[in-house]
Design goal:
Length: 302
């Protein structure tokens, strides 16, 4: 069952159309990713879902509610991550949790949330003294305070170090396991691939594709890549002559052969026939990164 439905959403800033006819549905209980490069219209789309911006066209339903016409009901249903600048520097963690709890009819037990988010020993710490990862965790705690059915997390892990990012991923999976539907805005491929049940790829205000990470990769092609270090020089023409091979490139001392079908068997047979041994051989499947490039014609700069 869809908990969020976005139909033909249009949002303009002056004569710039930031979101241009976007439609998708988020199913209850999933982690739904919105992935795209800077300026693609991701934040504008979720701000319309959050009722923070008025669409110029199309319709949005969150649990049957129109975000613009019923903001009070929406607040009980939808948890929104605060931006860093929205918390006073000198406010302590426990003060922030108390204050924001008072905004909800049926707030969650904030001490339990703080425990889950591993911030119990920071209760009397001022916001400005928290690390980047701790600030992010606090913003997630605040987003979950109202026991929302849906949490919108925008660029949650930007600016975090790799370990803090992985911790945040575990946390998000834990929240989903508690039954919360999550809309995750990101421009990190690895994050999208690891976390999202389904993904909308967005580029220049439009949806390019919506599918599971594996489905997006399969949409593009079944191309494979083989990397190896040849034990002796091999004439590239011997490999490019194979019907399975699309290209052969040199990368330092390695050869990278791209192709389809039973590429591995075809390539290793030619190598063996020419007394060449393939050292450090690796077979790489198409990644979400490759899929994005194939579908949009450009790379996401992450
Ligand atoms: N308040 C605003 N006024 C004018 N233009 C805006 C405003 N907010 C966003 N834009 C423009 O609309 C486009 C989409 O911006 P948006 O922030 O939605 O993209 P995004 O995909 O979230 O990118 P980012 O990852 O950089 O946040 C961009 O070209 C941006 O410059």
């Amino acid at each position: 069952m869809a908990i969020i439905e976005v139909n033909n959403l249009v949002k303009r800033y002056g004569d710039h159309t930031a979101v241009n006819g976007v439609s998708f549905a988020v199913e209850q209980g999933e982690i739904f990713g919105i992935l795209g490069p800077n300026g693609a219209g991701k934040t504008t789309t979720v701000e319309c879902i959050e009722g923070l911006r008025s669409p110029d066209g199309g319709s949005i339903s969150v649990g049957g509610i129109d975000p613009r016409s019923d903001s009070r009901e929406l607040r009980e249903l939808l948890g929104v991550q605060l931006q860093e600048s929205e918390l006073p520097d000198k406010m302590r963690v426990d003060e922030a949790m108390e204050l924001y709890s008072s905004f909800y009819r049926n707030p969650a037990d904030w001490r339990e949330l703080i425990g889950i988010l591993n911030l119990t020993d920071k209760l009397s710490t001022q916001f400005r003294r928290l690390s980047g990862g701790q600030k992010q965790r606090l913003s997630i705690a605040l987003a979950l305070l109202g026991n929302p059915k849906v949490a919108v997390l925008d660029e949650l892990t930007t600016g975090l170090d790799p370990q803090a990012r992985r911790d945040a991923w575990d946390l998000i999976e834990g929240i989903r396991d508690r039954g919360v539907t999550i809309v995750l805005v990101t421009h990190f491929m690895e994050e999208a691939e690891r976390l999202c049940d389904r993904l909308a790829l967005v580029d220049s205000g439009q949806i390019v594709a919506v599918d599971t990470p594996a489905g997006l990769v399969a949409k593009v092609d079944d191309r494979q890549r083989i990397r190896f270090r040849p034990s002796a020089p091999i004439d590239h023409a011997l490999l490019t002559a194979l019907p399975e091979v699309a290209s052969v490139e040199r990368a330092g001392s390695q050869l990278v052969v791209t192709g389809t079908g039973n590429l591995l068997l075809a390539v290793t047979t030619v190598l063996a026939r020419n007394q060449v041994v393939a050292g450090d051989l690796r077979v790489e499947q198409t990644s979400l990164d490759d899929a994005f490039v194939a579908l949009t014609g450009r790379k996401i700069d992450a």
